[in-house]
Amino acid sequence: MIGPLNSYTPKILGRRDFGKKLIGGFALASAFSGGLNRSIYEKLAAWDKKNLDQEAPDGAYWDFVTSQYMFEPGLSMMNNGTAGAMPRVVYNTLMEYFQIQAANPFKCYSTFDAYREEARLRAAQFIGALPEEVTLLRNTTEGLTIVAYGLDMKPGDEVLMSNLEHPSGIFPWKLREKRYGIKIKEVTINTPPRSKDEILSAINYGITPRTRVILISHAVYKTGLIAPLKEICQLAKDKHVLVCADGAHCVGMLNLNMHDLGVDFYANSGYKWLGAPTGTGIFYVKKELQKELWPNIVEAEWENPTVGALKYSYVGRIADPLPIALGEAIHFQMNIGKPRIERRIKTLAAYLKEEAGKIPNVQVLTPLDPELSCGLTVLGLEGMKNDQFVNYMLEKYNLVIARIFNEKNAIRVSTHIFISFKQIDTLLEGLRAVYGKK
Fold it and tell me: What domains are defined for the chain?
């Protein structure tokens, strides 16, 4: 178990406080995996002790963290934006609980519910929310769809979104527009934007008296932009408009706090940057808005006001090891520290952007401002199709990046904590080889 249910507190623990809970049985699945996870966390704690006062420890620390991922030899996984890597502790937990389920299915309804609930409480703490404001879903798309179909709206009511949104955010509203007569209004955000004020001005200009909801990607999948979500939420609040954020990439990449952001709805996929298995997600609904947001699938308790955001995840029996493993992924990151993770990711991305910007015919489409960017870096290529370059890097260097389908013929690079400067140099080497610059 993660820990006693009555030990939960909505206060977000710092890395030091969290580490104190480590050896005393706080590590999920240590009682079930033959001590494998316990040993890993003890080693991580030893490394942390050496770097306790450093939010930017040296490469040896990150080499140890990287060693806790199970990559094939020589593989450089630089596409966290589609599906990320699970650390070994998460894999151990996932496999152990599936094994328990196979050996004793009775556990599925006698003990797994409690473990899953503790994972949910951990998720609430991790993102800076109250327990009753968070539930666990299967992915970002599910959360965004709940919002799109759960709010009462009249024909002619408007949903404002940018030109940079993901199809999983756009099309639930498109379907509702076609069936029920609401209106979608799009505002243009430049790639890259010149400033935070440019983004806020575009959104402010797009709001009308009919605007009910703003849909915004916190991290834009095809440009790497980090939207100024806190300021957008304040702007929307002043105009009595709700904000639904597509946070698919942000949990596990940014040091988040839902209450500080002021967002109304926030949907995330745990299998990108958080390191959880595919089929996991975190969904946040502000407490005072739960009376306004209808669930799409219901069970007997959905009208009970004490269930809070849980009513949005009533879908019948699920694969319980998945959310339990998500709890383990959160535990792993908390033992590293959210500020430390964000700093590392931004440092790697800044180096990539600086060096890639020096290569002719390579256009950096992600803002250079660290406030407006993080671990997704998008590069436009001239003179070579992006899919050709993606295949070239895979075949020559065993390095995985993503291609982006837009007018810029772009590639997308993820710089998570398990990526090294040497791997970034390998990507740069490939770019320079293609464009003839040494």
Answer: 126-329 (3.40.640.10), 340-435 (3.90.1150.10)
